[in-house]
Amino acid sequence: MWRILATATLGWQPVATDRQTLRFTFTGGLDNFTQRNDIFSPPELQFEPNDGQPGTVVLGKTQNTNVNALGNAVYTLTPASRAYRATTSLGVQYFDKSLNFTNLVGRNLPPGQINIDQATSIAVNQDLQPIRDLAIFGQEEVLGLDERLLLTVGARGERTSRNGNVKRFFLYPKAAASYRFPALGGSAGDELKLRAAWGQTGNQPNFGNKFTPSATGTIGGLFGSSAGFTAGAANIRPERQTELEGGADATLANGRLNVNLTGYTRTVSDLILVQTPAPSSGRAASVFNGGRLRGRGIEVAAGYVVTQTPTVSWLVHATFTKTTSKVLALPVPAFQVGGFGTSLGAFQVEVGKSATQIVGNDSLGNVVQVGDGTPDFQLSLANDLTYRRFGLSFLWDWKHGGDVINLTELLFDLFRNSEDWATGGRQRRALFFKGETQPYVQDASYLKLREATLSYHLPASAVHQMFGDRVRNATVSLSGRNLIRITKFRGIDPEVSNFGNQAIARNIDVAPFPPSRSIFFSIDLDF
Amino acid sequence: MKATTCLLALAALGVWACDFNITDPNSPGPIGTDPSRADVADHVIGVILAARSDAADWNLDAGILGREAYRFDGSDPRFISEFLNGPLDPGGGAFGGDHWIEEYNAILSANQLLDVIGTATRLTAAEQNGTRGVVETLKAYEFVMVLMGHAEDSIPVDVDLPIGAPPAPLVSNDSAFTFVSSLLDAADAHLAAGGTALPFALPAGFTGFADVAGYRKFNRALKAAVEVYRGSLGCAACYTTAKTLLESGATFIDTSATANLAAGVYFDYSTNPGDAPNPLFQNPQTGENFVNPRIKDSAETKPTTGLDDRFTSKTVPRPITTTENLTSDVGWIRYPATTAQIPFIKNEELILLRAEANNALALPVLAANDVNYIRVTSGGLAPIAGLAAQTQAQILGAILHERMYSLLYEGHRWFDLRRTGRLGPYLKDRATDAVFPTLPIPLDEVLARK
Questions:
Q1: pTM of the model
Q2: How large is the ipTM?
């Protein structure tokens, strides 16, 4: 894997007086990423498919180049009275991305050969994804009332090659206000801030949403092109998300306690949906804009300095989040996304229901809701401890609720070798054979020690001895990820998503590769 | 400073002028109006490719449902739990809800070409007609595939609709069969006005059928099959149509001394780039697909020695395997290579279709002749003495028995038993099993109509 990152910034400040400043900034960036995959599976291996073509060699190469250019102008004005300060920004942003993915799969290899040239049959796959985006934006910010009140209004116009109409700018306004109560309760360090914000943003269509690609192949050496299974939307436009957010930030107990409270309601309209049309249309999926989805949530974050002395410090930070979603409107009948069919559990998008509901069959063959992928709440707790030169930090994650379609267990049960075959597996299997999906849609609550790090700052004398004058500080640390997992979920991992990073159809477990436990030893040097 | 401003302005302008109109770099889009000759050729082949996509899977699934085959699949239990035990899940695209969208996708591919073929100025009128005839015949074949799997009188036929339009209305199986029959006639009429040569090459599986005259024989053979199916489903006059077609020289039926029973139209497979290997080819000793032991149990013995040649040439003994109280010691060699072809229709089937039509038309002598011809020529068996004197139902039983071995693992058995009313509990391998008369209409099709 190779990656090159480069940025250049050009600034120019033609006006800089006490009361006015004007500054132009131009930033250009380049990000080039190349990844190569080599897989070799010799013909002797037992897991080679029984397809008459023993031996597989895969040669994959992905190259992605992002070019980013941003130009903006910022003007600030402070009147002679100094009653307020106004900041005006205007800018243009351009983004160009080109992804080029190639994959060669060679099958039927002679023994001992690893070169793809030696394969009897070679399949080639290339995917190109060029994207161009352009945005213009403007914002006005006023800070007044003795720096207590901050008002912001702004708007952003976006056009992208991913839209059906590539010329049109879609406009997204926003506005926000906040007010500070400094020195709350007489203590200088404490304050309370109330804030409210309203804004719209656009979620761009994915590359290819507007295309209706044909399926191609060959038969007897003749090239053929037939209707693809996905119908794109030639007039696709971005999703529009309108969010109203309110909250309070408080610093209390002489700055030792920090509390942030946020509540929001978010409505996404013009959803970019991939609907399943009547299959007699010859299509399995059709992309379109429509429907409305509402998400609501609260977030509470609190940080507390338990103790802070020159030798010992202990910081605790906790966050609590709870979200719910509801499909408010859908211009098409309910449809399923993901899964392997209703009998094995599938996500179904349906008006009035949670966007992540899981449906399955009951014993009478009815389609019923059997679960929901969204958890009841999530809580994380981070601790930072230092004692003299030692540091210890760890992060606990607790997810309560949220279901996973556990097909791994179904496979174990079917072949009668699940861990609890005698006490539970037999009954689950029997229910499944009566047509019930419920036994394999399971609660995936968990408590995980996500991260832990133990570090030691070397004393200055030792640093000097080891590295000389050039190094100022040195730290050695041992850290680990996914160290402890406590869950009743019997699949491979409660956080699994067999089909990668999906919006809806995440929680499916079919003997996937689990999240890895990793341990790092690192030495950090400051020059 | 000026230079910087200019640079900024230029950059902004340059960005503004960038062409955002990116066309799909990965794949061609749907065929447009006035297609070139190459476009037409590509899309004709495309329809064949789309039709091929379900051919092997149908043969396997219908084989399991019709008790020709088992699949002991370590990673998917539904080949046993769902297909033999049930219930069939209309929401399972690879099981109960299968054998629908692939067929309709091929029909969509056909319709997309048929919609624009009249605008193809680079084809002569005759060539346009030839193309229509070829594509309509394939489209009709795909409707037959849908009808073979679905008996619920809920068949969308008028499916040439834009995306987003309300789904096509459902018609009864009888109306759908009538539609298919007329579509084959319309295709034949187009072929008749199609000159002599077709304006594109067809794959090797169409050898002998790749010109207008040859392709018409394929069309008429399919029509004969459809008429016999309709006959068995209650249309008495259809048997006469089938008989006429099969005796008029319109099809490629051949029982002469030089007859090739395998002559017919086939799907090709290969491991070449872009092509697909025949997925029914497996190592017969270790593959997941097994022969249902009843195929071995009911195979007859030859007068010389050994079992029916059709059985011994399509299956092979393998180590005994038991899963879920199902046992088999027979493996498949019906498709013995990744390049083995799968038939659309072949001479051997036409002869048995003729026997079926004659038997239904109370001409037992003619029917018995054809049955015995197949028994001797294809199976190496002795003729059945006095077959012509048996009852019509008995002769039909003999025909279906021969069809089982002549068309083994070709996706016919289940439909044959259904259309002749011979599905029954006797087909169960285990007491708790079920014998299904039809696949359900897929859940997505039902949901889209709510």
A1: 0.82
A2: 0.90
